[in-house]
Every structure is written in C-alpha cells, then in structure tokens.
Design a protein that fits this description.
- The chain is mostly helical.
- The protein has one domain (3-153).
- It is 80% helix and 0% strand.
- It contains five helices and no strands.
- The protein has helices spanning 3-27, 35-52, 58-70, 76-107, 117-153.
- Helix 2 (35-52) packs antiparallel against helix 3, helix 2 runs parallel beside helix 4 (76-107) and helix 4 (76-107) packs antiparallel against helix 5 (117-153).
- The longest helix is centred in the last third of the chain and has 37 residues, at 117-153.
- It starts with a helix and ends with a helix.
C-alpha cells in the first residue's frame, strides 16, 4: 500500500486494535472494582478511543461511535456522558458523510451526478448546521466526562 491507502490501512488496524482492547476491558474481571466503576472505565475508554481516532478513517470512526452508543450506562453520570458525547460525534460524523457525498458529486464528470445531486447539495447546508450543533455540544460532552470521572473516583 502506498500514500493515503497505506495510511487508511494503518488507521484501520489501530482502530481495530482499540476495539479489541475495548471489548477486553469490558469483559475483564473487576479486581474488586464496582460494576459502576467498570462501566465508567469502559465508557471513558470508548469515548477516548473515538475522540483520538483519525478523522480520515470515517468508516472506522462510525464503528467506534456505534460501540460507544452500545455501552451500558446505568448511572446518571454515565448516561449523560454516553448520550451527550454520542450525540456530538453522531452530528459530526453525519456532517462529514454529507460533505464527502457533495465532494464526490463535485468531482464527478459532467452529467454523471444523477438525479440525487440536488438532494446532496441540500445536505451540504444541513451538514454545516450539524457541524455547528456538534461544536455547541462538545463542551457539554467534556463536562459530562468530567462529571463521570469525578463520580467514578468517588465510588459513584
């Protein structure tokens, strides 16, 4: 592999390894930790992995977001962190997908855009709104993560 294909493959391998580590963390015995603490640790890890994932590997980030959305969250701080951060990243990834569709449309040879072209261009305006909404929610995500870390330290 060369160029961006090699980088995408490397990113995909790193993300696959992170997903495997996340699954192992979720399945690991508690070593005396409460179920709530284990849940908080797994949730914090899932969010960290998603946040740190390369933005170019959109499909891999989608898988990480789906994993975050499936994380159990039985306490209010855990549910708030999962739901707020998942919402912020869902908006961002949806916007990125719409932008990619429009970019492909603009790069298409003349006449090959097809009947969905107008819809895709309308999606670009919606994508911009999603990016702005995501930017508004991200600080709430950071606050929810801080609250979850604090609750986990205090034994929830």
């Amino acid at each position: 592999m060369t160029g961006s294909a090699g980088a995408a493959g490397t990113a995909a391998r790193r993300i696959a390894a992170a997903l495997a580590a996340l699954a192992a963390l979720a399945a690991a015995p508690g070593c005396g930790r409460s179920a709530e603490r284990q849940e908080a640790d797994a949730l914090l890890h899932a969010i960290d992995v998603l946040r740190d994932a390369p933005s170019e590997a959109r499909e891999a980030r989608e898988a990480l977001l789906a994993e975050l959305e499936r994380q159990p969250a039985s306490t209010p701080p855990a549910a708030s962190a999962r739901d707020t951060c998942a919402r912020a990243y869902r908006l961002l990834l949806d916007a990125t997908a719409a932008e990619a569709r429009v970019r492909a449309l603009l790069e298409a040879p003349d006449g090959s855009a097809g009947p969905g072209a107008l819809s895709d261009l309308t999606d670009l305006a919606a994508a911009d709104a999603k990016v702005k909404e995501s930017a508004e929610i991200m600080p709430k995500c950071a606050e929810a993560l801080s609250n979850l870390r604090r609750a986990a330290r205090l034994g929830m």
